[in-house]
Amino acid sequence: MMLKINGQTAGRRGALLATVVLCGLFTACAQPPKPLYQWSGYQSNLYEYFKTSSANAGEQIDKLEAQLLKNKAANEASPPGLHGHLALLYAKVGNDNAAKSHLEAERALFPESAAYVDLLLKRRAAATVPAGGASAPTTSTAPTASTGSTTTPATAAAAATAK
User: How far apart are the first and last CA of the chain?
Assistant: First the structure.
């Protein structure tokens, strides 16, 4: 049994009840938080690509490019890795310019990927041989037995073919 002293107990209960009701109303009307990235389609496409042992790259490119357009139209952020995976697919079909632009987009959108993207771009540049067939100079040298001078692996290979 509760005693009322000057109506203070009833007032506290009323205030508490009003607070609970207002909190319930505010949380019931609240919108769920918007996701940071729009993942729809990307994860299932990626899973399908690896599940089917590198499925048709052209088909994957079409799906992921459509996802990028959809995200851009809805003003939603694309998830990390989408541009990187598109770069892989474009490199697979031989479109090196598109691959490079998607790697650069990945690096711009996600700076934490810069070290890996730079490594991939460096490897891509090293794999690209100039039209004349000359390779990039290497820094490793080894002295030759006859002259004591140093030679690079490229000049050693040229000398071996000349013999």
Answer: 112
- The per-residue pLDDT for range 71-103, each reduced to its tens digit, is 999 898 999 999 999 999 999 999 999 999 999
16-25 b/e (C-beta count within 10 Å ≥ 16 → b): eeeeeeeeee
- Measured at the CA of 69, the angle between CA 67 and CA 71, to 5 degrees, comes to 70
The helix/strand/coil state of 89 is helix
Q: Could you tell me how many residues make up the chain?
A: 163
What is the distance of C-alpha 68 from the center of its chain? 13
For 7-25, the pLDDT digits (tens) are 556 677 878 888 887 777 7
Q: How far is CA 71 from the centre of its chain?
A: 15
